[in-house]
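Sat 14:20. Reprocessing the chain from the morning session after the first attempt stalled halfway. Input below, unchanged.
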Amino acid sequence: MMVLTLVVLWFSCPFEGSENGPEEGHLLSPPPTPGVSSSPVPTALPETGETHGEHEPPFLYEKQVKETAHGPVVMHFLEIDMRSDKAGVKPVTSHRTLFGYEYLSVMAKNSNALAAVNGGFSHPNGLPGGMLYSNKTLKTPATGNFPVLFLLEDKAVIADATQKIWLQSKERASDPVFFNRYSDYEGIYVFTPIYGSSDRIEKPHLCAVVRNGKVTDMVSANEPVSIPSDGFLVSAVGADAERRLKGFIAVGQEVEIKTELKTSAPLDGEYVSAYECGSWIVKDGINVCPDSDGWVGTLLTRAPRTAVGIKSDGTLVFVVVDGRNKDISIGVSGPELAGLMIERGVMQAAMLDGGASSEMIIGDTIVNNPSAGRERLISSCFVIFKK
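Finished this time. Tokens:
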């Protein structure tokens, strides 16, 4: 393996990028629109920054090129010491909501990020594919299908997670409910203001409007119902769900949202944020990458990839591997990606979104070569910020 360059950076500069994104649909970047600018793909890496004394940067960026029999593989590593009092890591969604898409450069600029990496998977409308917790608020719950990256004040943990959410009145507890989830099925759904202005349900349903912890109204509707800014909305879809909601609460009753989280590894403290990833690829230093993933299908072909991992010393590691360009980088399979992480000293790792979504920004520069030739609209990302 030939290390082309090792640079560490400590700066935050303006970004270029489109402020616009589609309401839904995971799209490749559209052709340039007059008056709309998109960050260019760089032809060179940023110059090395100051690395000594009080100016020592809070993270490390490294580009590597590995020559293989099939062609070159270009890797971009970003490492963050979670014990640092200079920088932190957090997930960010497009437009600061649960729906829609933006360029990574725009999300980074709006977050005053020192660096940024694309996030994980989403539904076609941009809704996160699993658990999202930030600003001390649960936005979407864990599905139990994929591992979750938990970020604490001074460390990170990747663990399997299951989450139960229910409604609690003074008299009784409800059955588990769907939480900030698009209503694909019949059942009882709970929507908080972070979900948006309405429940987005365009079919017959019954709603309980909850303000300041008390049910203020019961509404039957055939179109979306507004979510109160000072509470939440309970929407029952289907005859059985409506019957259960009527039997559980009535106007004037007090009700609150309850949640219970179970993880496969102890968190040993309060987590600041949490983000559900894709499949496990490394567990306890062992390559456990499956042949296929529920989000992307086969993992055995070479493609651009992004992953997140944790070293034995607690260092958080993001990697973006370029691909789909035989002259620059052929990409890697999922198992190959896991092997690269293990070579880096990573003990636990999980997949993030890949393909044209794989992107890393350091300062104001896109350091990798997105396979579409330009940025792709994505639903979420991770940003490194100055504490």
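Residues 239-248 form the longest helix (10 residues).
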